[in-house]
Specification:
The complex is a heterodimer.
Chain A lengths: L2 E2 L1 E3 L9 E4 L6 H7 L6 E2 L2 E2 L5 E5 L1 H27 L13 H9 L6 E7 L7 E6 L6 H16 L9 H13 L8 E5 L4 H16 L4 E5 L4 E3 L5 E3 L8 E4 L3 H6 L6 H5 L3 E3 L4 H5 L3 H8 L9 E2 L9 E5 L9 E4 L2 E5 L9 E5 L2 E3 L5 E9 L2 E10 L3 E2 L5 E2 L1 E3 L1
Parallel strand pairs in A: 2-20, 6-25, 9-10, 9-13, 13-14
Antiparallel strand pairs in A: 1-23, 3-6, 4-5, 7-8, 7-21, 11-12, 15-19, 16-17, 16-19, 17-18, 21-22, 22-24
Helix pairs in contact in A: 2-10, 5-6
Chain B lengths: L18 H11 L8 E5 L4 E2 L1 H12 L8 E5 L2 E2 L7 E2 L39 E3 L4 H5 L8
Antiparallel strand pairs in B: 1-2, 1-3, 4-5
The chains are: A alpha+beta, B alpha+beta.
Chain lengths: ~400, ~150
């Protein structure tokens, strides 16, 4: 979750959202583990942090809800614009993916989920830092763990911006109706990430609860059969027709079996669909700005350089986990993160002031399920760039 | 402008954790009697109390220095009480059944060209494996963490 931030915030602190310190529950580790959060600690320390929470008012939640819905609508228009104007190369999208993207978009292949990352202080409009459109994580903690926390700590009458679980249950049947009757959903992720396995397992449970037959398979276990026709298979050599993958499309395309995606494409349903490649590229940020200059929820962004901006960040088109991001102050390089990305090119995005709460800088991850705003999870950091280790802090509103 | 207040509280029903998640939790926390048993051992294979491994995990989480000296040990024979010796097992949990998913016992990543007889519904023919997943390794391994 790369998200850039500088210390600032609203001067009207009375109207800000609030960060409130609170005593963690007794045996909180056991409680969150029992609900599936097996990664409540990470190499940086505590990942699930219930020693504080963020408090919002109802109007602030409405603002976030509206922003997520509005940006999702703009994102859909941006996909059409990229296709119509052949802007794929600028987004770092491989040429072989383009006909598949067009086909998938034409078929209106459905999307399950995505997550907008906002900078927000409770007063000024939320500003979108980026859109995690293809492989968003931090889902279980946003959907389930913080909800259980809220209920236990504040009781049944308390409120949270969170209908993620219900919207997943609502969305799966809408997707499933488009598939062959009785067919099975397979869900895949890498084998060596607990977070990915938990996220995928949670989504599988929601699919099963929605009445869909579903099964997990690790991505390295997927087979390729070429006879009597090209197909991806399970360990029992059953042809996979419907596949949810918590694995980026650009990685699928670059893998050894990437060349077989074309042959199998017409016989498969993918979640997320391949047209999400357009939205998961950071190149969508300058595209959105180009189409909606001055939009209150967007940040100025360009492909070809900072264009006179003095305070900006440079982000690789396809980076993840905050990798290879460079922050510029007064036009000079001030801070950068390491990583393996950048060969594909960069975009330049204005730095946004982010409110500071007791030395913590929250980034609000607002979820959309099936194109509808569904809830929020907050990650906070003490550094300039939020990454996949940044702690998750629950929230409530009143 | 007065905004319409929109309640976001869950309106349908309580969350009920699914079987797959409960199974995963049971497997990973060692609470599943049907799952592979684990015990905490020291570097000689002697069984020690589980508290040692939990503390070692905590130290690792917080970046404690030095190599770990206590390890979870999965399966195998020998004793399970502190002071007895473990053997014939593994320092990594086997990839087995849970949550309705079935995973290969031999890692797929990097393997290829294997063929199998196939289960019900198999179309037969040679099936290779391991052609997906390589890009994760190229970017440092682990998950996607988006």
């Amino acid at each position: 979750m790369p998200a850039l931030m500088v210390v600032a915030g609203s001067e009207d602190k009375e109207k800000n959202m609030k960060r409130i310190k609170i005593q963690p529950r007794e045996n909180w580790q056991t409680k969150v583990e029992a609900s599936g959060l097996l990664y409540h600690h990470n190499p940086d320390g505590t990942y699930w942090n219930e020693s504080a929470y963020y408090l919002f008012n109802s109007q602030q939640i409405d603002v976030l809800d509206d922003a997520a819905n509005d940006l999702d609508r703009l994102a859909m228009k941006a996909v059409q614009y990229v296709i119509d104007n052949n802007r794929f190369a600028q987004l770092g999208i491989a040429e072989e993916a383009i006909p598949l993207i067009k086909k998938s978009w034409m078929k209106k292949d459905p999307t399950l989920y995505g997550r907008f990352d906002f900078a927000y202080d409770g007063v000024n409009p939320p500003r979108m830092l980026e859109y995690n459109a293809d492989t968003p994580t931090a889902l279980l903690e946003a959907s389930v763990i913080q909800w259980f926390w809220l209920q236990e700590v504040f009781g049944a009458g308390s409120d949270q911006f969170n209908s993620i679980h219900e919207k997943l249950l609502e969305m799966w049947p809408k997707i499933f109706r488009r598939w062959e009757e009785g067919s099975k959903l397979y869900l895949t992720c890498v084998a060596d990430s607990m977070e990915d396995l938990v996220t995928t397992t949670y989504l599988m449970d929601t699919a099963i609860e929605a009445g869909i037959k579903a099964e997990l398979i690790f991505i390295g276990d997927i087979g390729l059969g070429l006879e009597p026709f090209a197909r991806f298979t399970t360990l029992d050599d059953i042809t996979i027709e419907n596949l949810f993958k918590l694995y980026p499309w650009e990685w699928l395309l670059a893998d050894k079996y990437g060349q077989n995606l074309v042959q199998t494409f017409d016989r498969m349903n993918w979640i997320e669909p391949i047209w999400k490649l357009i939205l998961s590229s950071k190149g969508i940020l300058p595209i959105l700005w180009e189409l909606n200059p001055g939009h209150p929820n967007l940040l100025e962004a360009y492909f070809d350089g900072p264009r006179g901006m003095k305070e900006f960040v440079r982000k690789p088109l396809l980076s993840r986990e905050g990798a290879n991001v460079t922050v510029y102050h007064e036009g000079k390089e001030g801070f950068h993160t390491s990583g393996t990305y950048g060969e594909e090119g960069y975009i330049y995005q204005a730095l946004v002031p982010i409110a500071c709460f007791d030395g913590n800088y929250p980034i609000l991850g607002c979820w959309v399920i099936g194109g509808n705003s569904a809830g929020m999870g907050i990650r906070e950091s003490q550094t300039l760039v939020t990454n996949n280790l940044s702690p998750f802090v629950p929230h409530r509103f009143e | 402008m007065t905004r319409k207040r929109r309640r976001k509280i869950r309106k349908s029903h309580e969350i009920v954790l699914g079987v797959a998640m409960l199974s995963l939790v049971a497997t990973m926390t060692g609470c599943d009697d049907s799952a592979q048993s684990r015990r905490c051992v020291d570097s000689t294979g002697k069984v020690v109390t589980e508290e040692n491994c939990r503390q070692a995990e905590t130290r690792r989480y917080y970046g404690g220095g030095g190599p770990p000296i206590f390890f979870w040990y999965y399966g195998g024979g020998g004793g399970y009480s502190p002071g007895s010796m473990a053997g014939g097992g593994s320092y990594a949990p086997a990839r087995g059944y849970y949550g309705g998913g079935r995973f290969s016992t031999s890692p797929g990543l990097g393997s290829s060209g294997g063929s199998s007889s196939g289960g019900s519904g198999s179309l037969g023919g040679s099936v290779s494996r391991g052609g997906f997943g390589g890009s994760a390794g190229a970017h440092g391994g682990g998950g996607i963490g988006g």
